[in-house]
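Record filed below.
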Amino acid sequence: MKISENWLREWVNPSVDSDGLAEQLTMAGLELDDKFSVAKPFTGVVVGEVVEVEQHPDADKLRVTKVNIGQAEPVQIVCGAPNVRVGLKAPLATIGAVLPPIADKDGVLKPFKIKKGKLRGIESFGMLCGASEIDLEDDIDGLLELPEDAPVGTDIREYLGLDNQIMDISITPNRGDCFSVRGITREISVINDMPVNAPNIQAPAITSDANQGVKVESADACPRYLAQPVLNIDRSVATPKWMSDVLVQSGIRTHNFLVDITNYVLMELGQPMHAFDADKLVGDISVRLAKEGEKLTLLNDDEITLKGDELVITDDEGVIALAGIMGGARTAVIDATTNIVLESAHFDQITIAGKARRFGLHTDASQRFERGVDYDLPKLALERATRLLVEVAGAQVGQITTVEDINKLPQPSQISITTDKVNTVLGTDISSDEIARILTQLGIEVKQTGDAFECTPPTWRFDMSLPEDLVEEVARIYGYDNIENQLPKLEADMNYDDSADLLHGMKLNLVDAGYMEAVSFSFSDEKLENILNDEKLGAVLPLANPISSDLAVMRRTMLSSLLPCVQYNLNRQQSRVRFFETGLTFVGASVSELVQTPSIAIVAVGDVEPEQADSSYQNRAMDFYDLKHDVEQLLPTELSPNRISYQRADLAFLHPGQSANLLLDGKVIGWLGQLHPSVAKTLDLPLQKAQTVWVAQLATNPLAEVAREKNPVATPSKFPQVRRDLAILVDADIEWQTLQTTIRESAGNLLANTWLFDVYQGEHVPQGQRSLAFALVYQDTNQTLSDEVVNNITDKVVQALESQHQAVLRDS
């Protein structure tokens, strides 16, 4: 937010210079992004009054003028501006003046120095200036026209306040109360322990019986609404210079007096207001939620279609404004408007949040209402605006219509805190009286009992609800520089977090495998979520107030974060990409249904290995088993392979023949496989084999539980292992994991390990069947196994396979 330093000092004027004031605000949490003068440096320009104008004898577009600058004799100036005339007051650059730099023919900025010259044979002793020549914005083609009362001969920088500093303050999202002169000066006054000289705002006398009917149907969204007619406004009156100056210096373009009034009150007090053309209103004003499909043409001429959850202002003919964001074109004030209805209201933060962004809008009003506006401010702001309209434009003021529901207004939190709490958190020794002073000056209602405080935040502080919020207030006003540096106390704790240790180990394994960690938002693009949609994932949770339109929902899988990273890198000629990310996934259509799952995900594209210098090395494209290997590196070392199994995955965004679910003790904890080609095509990802996109995701909590298990330490057996291989014929639709489970159950405790090592379909195998070969490894920890024992167990396994799966033992 840009704000004039002079405007701030009218309210509170501490004995520090501009740099000191900037430092104070920054250290109080209101960081300055920039600080600059109203105009760039220049010298030698004064207020001049044109006293004589004659046609140049040799040039149709030039005039020979005489300009009074307060010296004994007027100065002769040759001028080509179309608006030069007798009586005009304008800036005049005298001989020797140095104007702001201009670019030469090579584009190099060089100071522009005024010298005595001749134009078509007539001497000129200076230059009359337009706005751009003294680094101001040009509103007209010609000289900058100064007010009639501008003192002749006065330095133009002094007269126009061009040395005034503009402070560009970065307001954090929780400090909506600081989007105004009133809010910033409250902070300055507390920092410097001095009072604020706020203007004495008194309501003007009611001079008209006119009133505006108002109905509020959505009291939760609008608990307070004020409307007041203001009639017979003199539109020949221009915006006063003092008002237009501070608006322009605050980065707000001036329009007409009526709009400038509301903008001025906005910047001064922080209350957004809106003016309706009273002659265009039809019937009562109504505040309600929109109806789905309703349309509104905004002040910027954009037509929007409403979804039904927006708060709108209507009259008998339809919607006339998007509440708290922007007015409609039908009731907009124009240059001919003389009768208006002023709106000043309190709108609920959550109701307004995100609605401006939905329609591609960002207004000063929405910026403030989304962060929270003081609900006691609407009446004061209305009085300020109507008083200015009366004083400047001789308006008549009608009746105030107030519709409010006190019970629906925000209820401030009651916060308890102690002196010990403040000093323990900050590492300070601040007295109870000092804490009470700081909190009280910040507008907080404090009830002190010894070293204990019961605090009620002021109506403008929507961000206070916890004791730590009060500690922060004390810290920033007491001064971070006044808090001594102390080394933290480091206490050893032998109870380490197994889950954190496991996650760290997972990350190290992936880094060793050539993956790089990505850190992304938990928010996702709704379009991407729709592309990665599968009903088995669950519902998408939309955000009430997204930071941007492409981060409007919570991610259901980590792919929503990782795939854009892959796109970005592939588009920049990175043919081999490896990423992983840890974080939460979110499933549920509402907060009450939300399930958050700690997860780890990987994505890989390209060859198995980076390009090698050894020409004899034959690289190849990554395949499913390479991905499976990388995923298995994430499993805890304590986890027995017998507890892990796989089954075909049926997620819509995975290739049906190149994907699998990973199961722990029979429960699905993740999936892995190739991104479905249709999804890859939609996302403009490569489809060729060399750049197939491989993805995987695991829930980390089940793995952490395995890591916490206290497994007994077993002494390795000193007796030899015995291996038997079984080749069987089974129906092709029987999953090998099912067969492996039967083998383990029937073999008993002497089976140390088993795995599938061959799959065959083709010649010599009946149609609809396949041959599977399993290795069975036996071992006894107490003795050497005899052939008889091994053969008996193997026969038992074969019988189980025959009876349960109609398997046939192959002879060869």
